[in-house]
Design a protein that fits this description.
The chain has about 675 residues and is an alpha+beta fold. Helices cover about 25% and strands about 35% of the residues. β37 and β38 form a beta hairpin. Bound molecules: zinc ion (ZN).
Length: about 675
């Protein structure tokens, strides 16, 4: 769905230059910022002092390389400095109490008008000041950042009438007059750098104890504020129960003029089109609030692998489903396995240790999906009590620190009293997933009823697993866990009734490699294709241009294109097909699933006929001829094709989609053919 594009990110992910971990000492920074949007200009003055006598004056500061420095003074007296390549160097005597840096910077990153097919969540924008809005990422160094020392900030942002600037910390003051506006923020927790957004915002606010709840939106979206405030309150309460006290003075939902979804310390920045989507309040919002702990207050040691996305995904996207409905939670876990199978090709995998940030769907399937499953398996292994108290200890002791996977391991070991080295090693250091097999299964009558036996095996490299098995009879469900540490482990069930079926991991509680047969063909298969081939059906030539956004969204821009006649002449092998229009030749026409009929410009799904020019059918089927999977794009008109093309890639988990007048009418995923990990016993199973 849409949200696959909107997965929201800790801004730190965008920082390309590693920042030295802050050493001892603390700087107090007072920043006076004036924004001149028509000129893309920021005028800044940073007044720095040391929080105490222990702090050494930093000798180097990062500042945007295109900045012009108007002056550097120490206790009011100009001092010499060097500014080169974004690094400001100077030497201060210990007795100096105040350092003042005055500067100007232009930020002009272009914002793409059209974001179809861009998988980088930053859209390539680090900093931009425009009449429509302003966003300055931490990485842009819009304020001087002392290297090796964290700061507490008081930030005053001035701008033209109507403009409100938002950054980290508590909102201290917001004034507006005829000549302009002024907004002041004060941070409590030491941070190395800040991000800043500004726009023509209306403010809605509430309080949760000491925590300010703030929603900054444009006039058009102001009606959404009440709902967002209510959700902020709900999730902050839930997460404070789970993790302990919320580490920031506020949580703010801030609208952005281009489609971002960032989680920043104490605030989230959501694009205008994003903030309006009805599901954001219950999906992205809790994910971002969870990042306040996991990724912001407790920072991530990226060198050891980014654990923050997996944990935020687990405690928000996943866990809220578990609270709401266990069936939805099961579906969510199963979808993680499907995404991994569909999007991560064998040999193209990476261990969680090497995941830094999402730039592709493959990274997302590992860094978010697999990592979330690792937390799920850990919770099953050590139990709820140890899992949540381990997280609470990590939240308490990791505040302001940079944590690696090994730090989380330490807290979970302390909370559970268990040695978890082997667990973390196999799931974090190693790429891939266990491939389980069920072999040699038989059921035979015995004196006590029936005996079902068999062998559970795994491919190399081996994992240490506890694999759930479920045997069902007409009236009983018998669960058993099989400890599988070697290549193979035999098991036996004895039941009083005739067995009906045996299933490995019925609750999808293990991260494992699915078999091909367990994965229905979906849009994601096309997206993950390494051998794409576009075929334009005879008479549908106009569709190629109209399908541009579809090809970009699937990352198929460079796919070769053949006409139907060319395809028939060559019959190329080993590829995934996307067919534009309904082919004339039976060779290119798929065998359609039950309930689906296509005739010329019309199609029938279930018992509904779609005939109008606005109707669009898109389906992905298991390949025939020499193809792996085949997608069919059947729009009723070129205009309908153009309108729908950009929507389809958002429905990655689906096999069949129907759109009408630009709206999705039907979305479905085929039932998997069968699973080799599910045995259906014959009704008359003979001994
Ligand atoms: Zn995230």
């Amino acid at each position: 769905m849409l949200r696959t594009l909107l997965y929201i990110h800790v801004l730190l992910l965008l920082v390309s230059v590693p920042v030295a971990a802050a050493g001892p000492g603390l700087i107090d920074q007072e920043l006076f910022i004036r924004l001149v949007p028509p000129d893309h200009l920021l005028e800044g003055q940073a007044v720095l002092s040391r929080a105490d006598g222990q702090t050494e004056w930093p000798t180097a500061f990062r500042l945007a390389s295109q900045a012009a420095i108007d002056g550097v003074t120490a206790d009011g007296v100009p001092v010499p400095y060097l500014f080169n390549g974004g690094l400001l160097k100077l030497a201060l005597a210990k007795r100096i109490t105040t350092l003042t840096i005055t500067y100007r910077v232009y930020f002009t990153d272009p914002v793409p008008q059209d974001t179809v097919g861009i998988e980088d969540p930053s859209l390539g924008v680090t900093a931009t000041i425009q009449p429509q809005g302003t966003y300055l990422a931490e990485a842009s160094a819009w304020h001087p950042r002392p290297l090796g020392t964290n700061s507490r900030f008081r930030v005053t942002i001035k701008g033209p009438p109507g403009l409100t600037g938002v950054t980290a910390g508590r909102l201290i003051a917001r004034e507006s007059g005829e000549t302009g506006t002024q907004t002041t923020w004060q941070t409590r927790l030491p941070q190395s750098a800040l991000a800043l957004a500004a726009g023509a915002y209306q403010l809605s606010r509430d309080d949760l104890g000491d925590i300010q709840l703030l929603v900054f939106t444009g006039a058009e979206n102001a009606a959404l504020a009440a709902g967002y405030l209510e959700s902020c309150r709900e999730y902050l309460q839930l997460y404070q129960q789970l993790f302990g006290f919320y580490p920031y003075a506020k949580f703010a939902v801030v609208e952005n003029f281009y489609p971002t979804g960032y989680g920043l310390p104490g605030w989230t920045l959501l694009g205008s089109s994003v903030i309006r989507l009805p599901f954001i309040r219950t999906t992205s919002l809790p994910h971002e609030i969870a990042h306040a702990w996991w990724g912001n207050a407790i920072e991530i040691d990226y060198q050891s692998g980014n654990w923050g996305e997996g944990l935020a995904t687990y405690v928000a996207d996943y866990y809220l489903k578990e609270l709401h409905d266990p069936a939805e939670a099961l579906e969510y876990r199963h979808n993680i396995l499907r995404d991994y199978k569909a999007l991560v090709a064998v040999g193209d995998d990476l261990p969680l240790r090497d995941f830094r940030s999402r730039t592709t769907k493959r990274d997302q399937a590992v860094g978010y999906g697999k990592a979330a499953m690792v937390f799920h398996m850990l919770r099953s292994l050590i139990g709820d009590q140890a899992f949540w108290s381990g997280l609470q200890a990590a939240a308490r002791q990791g505040l302001g620190k940079r944590y690696a996977w090994s730090d989380l391991q330490r807290h979970f070991e302390a909370a559970s009293g268990m040695q978890l080295t082997a667990f973390f090693r196999q799931w974090i250091d190693r790429p891939g997933a266990p491939q389980l097999r069920l072999e040699d299964v038989s059921a035979r009558p015995v004196a006590a009823g029936w005996e079902v036996s068999g062998a559970l095996s795994q491919d190399e490299p081996r994992y240490d697993l506890s694999v759930p098995l479920r045997l069902e009879t007409a009236t009983q469900v018998i669960d058993q866990s099989v400890v599988l540490t070697e290549r193979e482990q035999r098991f036996t069930f004895t039941v009083s009734e005739r067995p009906i079926n045996l299933v490995v991991d019925p609750q999808s509680s293990l991260f494992r490699q699915l078999f091909d047969e367990e994965l229905p063909a979906t849009v994601n298969n096309l997206r993950a294709s390494r051998v794409p081939l576009v075929v334009v059906a005879k008479g549908s030539e106009a569709l190629l241009g109209a399908s541009r956004d579809l090809l970009r969204g699937l990352q198929w821009q460079k796919a070769p294109v053949l006409s139907e006649a060319e395809y028939l002449a060559r019959r190329p092998g080993d590829h995934d097909l996307l067919v534009l229009g309904w082919p004339e030749s039976a060779v290119l026409r798929p065998e359609l699933p039950d309930g689906l009929r296509v005739t010329g410009q019309q199609f029938v799904v279930g018992d509904k006929l779609y005939a109008q020019a606005e109707g669009v059918l898109f389906m992905v089927l298991a390949g025939h001829e020499n193809s792996h999977v085949a997608g069919y794009f059947l729009p009723g008109s070129v205009a309908a094709a153009q309108d729908t093309a950009r929507r389809i890639p958002h429905y990655g988990r689906y096999s069949l989609l129907v759109f009408s007048n630009g709206r999705n009418q039907v979305k479905m995923t085929w039932e998997p053919l069968r699973s080799p990990l599910k045995i259906l016993f014959a009704k008359e199973a003979s001994p």
